[in-house]
Structures are given as C-alpha cells and as structure tokens.
Design a protein that fits this description.
By secondary structure, this protein is mostly helical. About 90% of the residues lie in helices and about 0% in strands. It has 2 helices and no strands.
Length: about 40
C-alpha cells in the first residue's frame, strides 16, 4: 500500500512535465505576438 501511494504521487516527474508544458505555451505566445507585430509594421 505504501509503495502504491509513493508511485501515485511522483512530484519530480509532474513538475518536469508542467515545466515543459509552460515553456511550450510561453514560446507559442511569444511567436504569436511577434507574428502580429510584424504584420502591423507592413
């Protein structure tokens, strides 16, 4: 039972996955903002 509880709450893997997801979302938002700004200059 104790081993099951430890495997269910694996914070290291969860934090890494959340960090990667946040990095991808921030990158997409920055690309979108730069694309909109480049369209306005033309």
């Amino acid at each position: 039972m104790n081993q099951l509880a430890i495997s269910l709450v694996n914070w290291n893997n969860g934090i890494i996955m959340i960090g990667v997801f946040v990095a991808v979302v921030v990158a997409l938002v920055l690309i979108l903002i730069s694309f909109v700004n480049s369209e306005r200059k033309k």
